[in-house]
Amino acid sequence: MLLDGINRIRAYHHKDGHDHHHPHPGDGPVETRSSGTREIKVVRRVLDANEIMAEANRERFAAQNIFVLNLMSSPGSGKTTTLEKTLRHLMRDYRCAVIVGDICTTADADRLAASGAPVVQINTDEFGGDCHLAAHVIEKALGGLDLAAIDILIVENIGNLVCPAEFDIGEDKRAVILSVTEGEDKPLKYPLMFRECDAALLNKIDLLPYLEDFDVKLAADNIRQIHPGIPVFETSAKTEEGFEGWLDWLRDSAKEKLG
Ligand SMILES: Nc1nc2c(ncn2[C@@H]2O[C@H](COP(=O)(O)OP(=O)(O)O)[C@@H](O)[C@H]2O)c(=O)[nH]1
Ligand SMILES: [Mg+2]
């Protein structure tokens, strides 16, 4: 259903009665879980099923010649603001579209639709508030987009520094945003996210004058300790400071695929 140019999709869920059978922090080592091998099998089955769906999405994107970016971060780091500004630049050269995931509300979709790009909002609230976008949810969202009219598809994932990193959605590149108000230690605490991503943004640098204890170099070093060689862009989505490097990386990545 198209409301104000925004296609709102409610994610459906696996019918096996398990909302969250992928590894979570706090789950403890898999071997010590209750009911022994049964639990382990379930984890593996869900992730395998996701991988198959992600591959199908990837083939579809390749056939339609669409470059796909998966943008991830904890809530409030600046995904939507970064996208609002990024779209404004990219849309001069590319036909862009957005899939945005939230547990509830269409607030981000409203903000992003102002760019003029087609936006599909996914709400996962009816299904236990999934903490990530899985490949089958992306596949469902694609039904709300005219793929033949898209060069670049950007997915704003659910705000979460853990679970989205575990789910391939068929994307070409992944980027993570860490904002300067979150602390330099987060790459070390949530290493999978930083290991899995191809680029990192250190956002909200306009706030640095008010954060005398935050060490930009240490934050960037921590990201590179987890993922040697990863580009780290120091940005302000508010002022667009540092955006040139980020936009260049994004354009170069898109060109690699689209030619
Ligand atoms: N000062 C400052 N605020 C920002 C910046 N980026 C985002 N924000 C603010 O941080 C809050 C969360 O941003 P949002 O883009 O919604 O984050 P998301 O939850 O990751 O999508 C909003 O109030 C934004 O205006 C930035 O670079 N500098
Ligand atoms: Mg957002």
Which small molecules are bound? guanosine-5'-diphosphate, magnesium ion
CATH architecture: 3-Layer(aba) Sandwich
What is Rg?
18 Å
Strand content: 15-25%
The number of helical runs is 8
Description of the structure:
By secondary structure, this protein is α/β, with parallel strands linked by helices. The protein has a single domain (2-10, 29-258), classed as Rossmann fold (3-Layer(aba) Sandwich). Helix content is 36%, strand content 18%. It contains eight helices and nine strands. It has a nine-stranded mixed β-sheet, with helices on both faces. Helix 1 packs parallel to helix 4. It is globular, with a radius of gyration of 18 Å. The two termini are 34 Å apart. Bound molecules: guanosine-5'-diphosphate (GDP) and magnesium ion (MG). Residues 73, 75-81, 159, 203-204, 206-207, 236-238 line the site of guanosine-5'-diphosphate. Magnesium ion is lined by residues 79-80, 108, 156.
Keywords:
259 residues, alpha/beta, binds guanosine-5'-diphosphate, nine-stranded mixed β-sheet, binds magnesium ion, Rossmann fold, single chain
